[in-house]
Amino acid sequence: MIVSLTSVAEEEFAKAAEYYELQREGLGDEFVSEVLRTAAILEDFPQIGTPIMPKFRSFQVRRFPYALVYREDADELIVVAVAHHSRRPDYWRDRI
After folding, report:
1. Which residue from 8, 17, 18, 31 has the least number of CB within 10 angstroms?
2. DSSP letters along 16-63, please?
3. What are the structural domains, with CATH classification, of the chain?
């Protein structure tokens, strides 16, 4: 199973990593590592995420207040949001 991010999710991911790097040198890299680790788990266990609506799941990123919101599409997982927990839970729905 391959994990890919939509362009909007990639932008969220990059902005979050940049924010953390500004907070403390190296923290942005740690965030990136945790998101990639989370994506690797999803590659092996795509059903592990919590169902949040038909066809969509959410899976928590360890150590950071983020979750990957994704859907399974044939042999690919498509991440539609790298969602911070303080955001409105369904802010990403207009992307589907």
Report:
1. 18
2. HHHHHHHHSTTHHHHHHHHHHHHHHHHHH-GGGSEEEETTEEEEEPTT
3. 2-86 (3.30.2310.20)
